[in-house]
Automatic annotation (TrEMBL):
Pfam families on file: Thioredoxin
Ranges of residues in domain Thioredoxin: 6-100
Protein name as catalogued: Thiol reductase thioredoxin
SUPFAM superfamilies, per the entry: Thioredoxin-like
Annotated InterPro entries: Thioredoxin-like_sf, Thioredoxin_domain
CDD domains reported in the protein's UniProt record: TRX_family
Native source organism of the sequence: Acidithiobacillus ferrooxidans (Thiobacillus ferrooxidans)
Length: 111
């Protein structure tokens, strides 16, 4: 899992191929710690998937652009394009099912 900042974020996103889960966190968020562990293991077990972590308290520009109001918040991008928010329980099998169902859907507009 890679920590990213808003500096050059959109340029990098535009040139990145494959699936990216963008994960918004905060240092004091207990649910974020659970998701962080799950996503680190999930990313390690799957090729073609990257997880990028954003500290919502530090990188507020990206946080506001995606209308993040609660943490953790997860969003799916494919080939640099916004797909949709991820709303699923913090379990690998639930994330597998969600990704299988949503990955090939047409993208939504960014919030």
């Amino acid at each position: 899992m890679e920590t990213v900042s808003e500096l050059g974020f959109w340029q990098r996103m535009a040139t990145t191929q494959g699936l990216i889960i963008l994960f918004f966190t905060s240092a004091g968020c207990h649910s974020c710690r659970i998701w962080r562990k799950l996503l680190a293991d999930y990313e390690a077990a799957r090729s073609g998937l990257q997880v990028w972590e954003v500290d919502a308290g530090i990188d507020m520009g990206i946080t506001q652009e995606l209308n993040v109001y609660h943490l953790p918040a997860l969003f799916l991008f494919r080939d640099g394009h916004y797909q949709r928010p991820i709303q699923v329980e913090a379990r690998a099998h639930a994330l597998d099912r969600w990704l299988a169902a949503m990955t090939d859907q047409p993208p939504e507009e960014m919030p």
